[in-house]
Specification:
By secondary structure, the protein is an alpha/beta fold. The protein has five helices and five strands; from the N terminus they run H-E-H-E-H-E-H-E-E-H. Helix 3 runs parallel beside helix 4.
Length: 136
């Protein structure tokens, strides 16, 4: 039987592995942002999927299992707020959703699990992902 210390170290390692291997969906109508965020997060060890609009994003959410959704707020068609509504209907609060926008004053911080204000740094992105992962 492993010691309590060994179990504690293993739990910590499992937790750190979880942070480094999230399956993340990024939804944004700006393709350069999708590519940039996908490259950054893939290099950090995450599995990343992308959608160029809210409608495609919701379809992917319903068809796949993700650990985290990062969505732009203002998009043509289905906005990030609409995406959030669909996620909450389908998954409840078990799937964290991070909103990102250049106009954060339009976002109700209480609805999203976190908000990224564009432009943001890599460090801010990583910090939000870590904080959201810890709280779920």
């Amino acid at each position: 039987m492993p010691s309590k210390e060994g179990i504690s170290i293993q739990r910590k390692n499992d937790f750190l592995d979880c942070l480094n291997s999230q399956k993340i969906l990024i939804i944004d109508d700006e393709v350069p942002i999708l590519k940039l965020l996908s490259n950054i997060l893939t290099r950090q060890g995450h599995t990343v999927d992308t959608a160029e609009n809210g409608k495609d994003g919701v379809q992917k959410i319903l068809a796949n299992a993700y650990n985290l959704i990062i969505t732009d707020i203002i998009m043509p068609g289905k906005s990030g707020c609409h995406v959030l509504d669909e996620v909450r209907k389908a998954k409840g609060r078990s799937l964290p959703v991070v909103g990102m926008s250049g106009t954060p004053w339009l976002i109700d911080d209480n609805l999203f699990d976190a908000v990224l204000t564009k432009p943001f740094t890599r460090e801010q992105l990583f910090e939000v992902i870590k904080n959201v992962a810890v709280s779920f």
